[in-house]
Design goal:
Blueprint: E1 2-3, E2 10-16, E3 26-34, H1 38-49, E4 56-58, E5 67-75, E6 82-83, E7 87-95, E8 104-116, H2 118-134, E9 136-137, H3 155-160, H4 164-172, H5 181-192, H6 197-203, H7 210-219, H8 224-228, H9 233-240, H10 242-259, E10 263-268, E11 271-276, H11 285-290, E12 292-294, H12 304-316, E13 338-340, E14 342-343, E15 346-350, E16 354-355, E17 363-372, H13 377-385, E18 391-392
Parallel strand pairs: 1-18, 2-5
Antiparallel strand pairs: 2-8, 3-5, 3-7, 4-5, 6-7, 8-17, 9-14, 10-11, 12-13, 15-17, 16-17
């Protein structure tokens, strides 16, 4: 079973409830992008319109190997439509404030699953019916973990240990297969010339997030923690959230092991996704639908089973809950966001199978559904795939040719 063989196989539509105000200073656009991450699109817009990072906002991150529609707001942006190499920006109105994550109501997905055998079709349909009943654990999927997938370590963990230089190096000088060629070239150059800050600065492009960091090190060699603080805040927040996301996944996997008799374990880069195959012992479906648990952080309050589970996970990593506060810096504070533990898809449709034009002799199927913001559609696909292995094409993103949309 294959996902994302071409960007058109994975279509995402952000559904938002935006408080438009035509007297407001922020222009709101629908951003259509193909085969590019939200960060890449934002950096391109900042460069094109000569913006400051604070001038542009968005509600969420959308998949890279995909065709997506989401909203962005630009301070004093022009009221017109723009096109670029991999994006289209369509003006739709104005707002009095920036966009934030609470503006997203849900995300709609139109996914083509490929390389199927005829016998897999009934299995997919049966498993989807089970998902409607029992839900899907709300794990963070592989795309969350970036360089950690390749044993490069956690930036947050290095900061907890006070290894500020290594934390910075992991952030800006450690190429991964997810990076586009330009970003990989920048990271490789920084890595190979680490410590020669003036030389690195001379070779950096005129616009890139790493430039302000290296400028700081030219003036303040060795001040790695404050150099990291110069990074683009939204991307830095994502990098630092990887470690607590891993802890969260382990907590939810342990909860599923504890509460369900029948489970399915699917390995991934930093652990195992554990899915329920039946109803929870002593837990009503309505309770699961409403269940929220704080993301791991110093001040999170866990109760009952989750308290014991959190303590077990922290012990396994030789940390305490208090250690999740970075005491030497105001760089980043983990927030006690209460995250849903299970999600349940709505408006599900599954097409009849048809010939797969990419994989000779195989079938493809279109699956559409809507899920709450903050949930991963790929987790649903992995759950309904059951024991079948899902090949995600995220590693071949750089081989896909760009085209105007």
């Amino acid at each position: 079973m294959k996902l994302k063989q071409i960007p058109e196989d994975f279509k995402v539509t952000e559904n938002s409830n935006l408080p438009f105000d035509e007297s407001g200073p922020y222009s709101v656009y629908a951003l259509y992008k193909r085969n590019a991450s939200t960060f890449e699109a934002v950096e391109t817009l900042i460069c094109r319109f000569n913006l400051l990072y604070k001038d542009i906002s968005y509600s969420g991150l959308k998949d890279r190997t995909a065709c997506t529609r989401q909203y962005v707001a630009i301070y004093n942006g022009e009221q017109k439509t723009f096109r670029g190499k991999f994006y289209r920006l369509k003006y739709i109105g104005r707002m009095a404030r920036q966009l934030n994550v609470s503006d997203i109501v849900s995300n709609g997905f139109d996914i083509t699953v490929r390389d199927l055998e005829l016998g897999q079709i009934d299995e997919l349909r049966k498993n989807m019916e089970a998902v409607k009943l029992y839900g899907v654990p709300n794990y963070f999927d592989e795309q969350r973990f970036g360089s950690v997938r390749h044993n490069k370590g956690f930036v947050f963990e290095e900061l907890m240990k006070g290894n500020y230089e290594n934390a910075l190096k992991l952030s800006i000088a450690t190429p991964t297969v997810f990076d586009r060629s330009r970003r990989r070239w920048i990271k490789t150059g920084i890595n190979e010339n680490w410590g020669n800050w003036e030389g690195i600065l001379a070779n950096l492009p005129g616009f890139c997030p790493e430039r302000s960091i290296i400028k700081h090190l030219v003036k303040n060699p060795g001040d790695f923690i404050n150099a990291l603080n110069k990074y683009y805040r939204a991307e830095l927040k994502m990098i630092l959230s990887i470690y607590p996301s891993m802890l969260w996944n382990e907590m939810i996997a342990e909860y599923v092991r504890k509460k369900y008799k029948k489970i399915l374990s699917v390995p991934y880069s930093v652990g195992n996704f554990v899915f329920p195959l039946d109803a929870a012992k002593g837990v009503a479906i309505e309770e699961l639908q409403q269940m929220r648990v704080p993301m791991p952080n110093k001040d999170a309050v866990y109760e009952g089973d989750m308290k014991k589970i959190a303590e077990k996970v922290f012990r396994a990593h030789n940390i305490t809950q208090d250690s999740l506060e970075l005491k030497d810096t105001d760089l980043f504070r983990l927030k006690g966001t209460r995250r849903r533990v299970f999600f349940f898809p709505e408006d599900v449709t599954m097409s009849e199978p048809e010939a797969d034009e990419i994989n000779e002799g195989k079938l493809k199927m279109k699956i559409t559904f809507r899920i709450p913001s903050g949930c991963y559609a790929t987790m649903l696909i992995k759950r309904i795939a059951g024991e079948a292995q899902v090949e995600d094409n995220i590693l071949r993103t750089n081989e896909i040719k760009s085209q105007e949309i």
